[in-house]
Fold each of these.
Amino acid sequence: MRKAVLALLTALVLAPPAAAAVKIKLGVVTKPGSAQNVAAEKFKEVVEARSGGDVTVKIYHSASLGSETEILQQIQMGSVQMGIITLGPIDAFVPEVDVVAFPFLFKSYDQVDRVLDGPLGAEILKRMEPAGFKGLAFTENGFRHLTNRVRPVHTVDDVKGLKIRVMESTLHKELWRALGANPTPMAWPIYTELEQGTIDGQENPLWVAWTYKLFEVQKYLSLTGHVYSAHAVVANLGWFNGLPRATRDLLTDAAREAARHERNWNRSNEADFLAKLKKAGMVVDEHPDLDSFRDKVAGLKNLDMFRRPGTAELLEKFLAATR
């Protein structure tokens, strides 16, 4: 009997410790009901269900952790494990991501999925690693459109002089400068600045104009679709690599499933968002003169940001894949 007890005690002492529960802080800058949150909530649902509660996700929404740039900095430091972040602000850390947002690059959502879910998308995610990020998947904002409070915009000449809020992104500043606007970088949200006239307009997908009630402070909407706007599901690279293999696989699979879910949500609701914006009183130009816009931005390919070693070659690959 004593031998049996001794054997049991020895086994308990030598047994490997149970895997520690994993707690994830996930930051998004938008409020519930927004695209990033739709993806974040699906990610949380999948992770917690498939891990049996061993991995938990707490979503910090509505910029409670700061701007997207500040969330990225916290992910780098490891005080926040994950975020779903618009690619624009990521360019300060990973300049190569700007190739995804090159103006008028993508022609359709089918093309977006073929490219971003393929080797080129994987290459973009891989290039985040030197900056300390593990890129897991692309969710989406969607195609961006212009709104303003001053006048209808049909041709690029109508943009001249408008003070347009842009993301904290070098590319987006250069884009709107090329179009003749006065680009003004601001962190989200911007309703108050639009209401007070600090800025004349902004550019975002339709879900943003509806969810954030921009129709209350913006009269004109032009369906320019000038940039396809993606988010990335990113994690702190060191933290991610330190997780057990099964947990890493779980988070990767959950991120991809959340991405597919959120893309479907955005695309299936676009027509409804547009109808609601019209009903709310916005004056919509559904067929602006896009050739006039394309002519103005053709030269962006020669910006220094796209001439860096590696980035120029990557842009050519994206351009070839979307012709």
Amino acid sequence: MRPLPLFMATSLRSADQVVRALALLALTLGSGSTAGFAQSPRPETPLVVEAEIELVSLTAVVHDSAGKPIHGLTAADVLVLEDARPQQLTYFREASGASDEKIPLSVVLVLDASGSMKHNLHFLQEAALRFVDKLESVDTALVVQFNESIKGSADFTGDPERLEQFVEAMQAWGGTSLYDAVHYGLERIRDKPGRKAIIVFSDGDDTTSSVFTEQGVIDYARSAEATVYCVAIRGMSLLAHSPRGFLKRVAAETGGSYFSPDRVGDLIKVFSLIADELHNHYVLAYKPQRAPDGTWRETTLRLLRKDLKNVTLRVRKGYFAVKRRPARGRP
């Protein structure tokens, strides 16, 4: 019997709480433990985590026709729709800005270390190291390496040297538990305040996941409030299949992007593009007009400024408006 998909929706109760949570993250950047890699748990039955949606947060990417980020927008320049109904923004802020105004970013690097990566692992490691170098002082990251098993660094850290140690310790062997690894990354980042992103790299289709299915991970990603960026290349093995279908879907559902470079040597350029986008977008939030009822709600974003033409807008496609479960022992 296949495991049931997990559904989670996280929220903050007010715009003030958003700001307080971000400030708390900034104060605790240096407190994380990073002692090596922690083996991922293998639950027999997935947990269902539910929380009432009182404030929906979105990360919005806004590019011009040349693919460059558009800066300087205000809340009056955009319109958020939930199931085609206009919503009133309670929070709007550009991620870039003065150093004392930057919004903290949490990132999980989910990196394929399966046997087919044996001859190309150094390209991936170099790309990941360049990405780490682009992290800003308020950012933290976590490294997850996967093959037929999954190992994640003990905690998020903003120390570049420790992140480099995790990346350089990767070794290529075994099969590819892609679905389990992506789900693990989502679990690790789901409770982080502020902006959240996952970067997934794989060179082959899933061959050894034992806990989660493709659809189960897609469903979980749709409600985890993290933007997922996916990079896929074809592995060295003649039997390797492309993970493009799954990676394209999970990126599209969460407002991220999918990349498929022709050469493994292009990974540095791709990871740099992702790093630049993560520091050049907008964070916004609104309180839904309807009470939570367990349904899927579609979110879209429109630009109201008439002077901007051929603009690309990207946000996650929606969320699950799930009611909170009562705590045990309480009515």
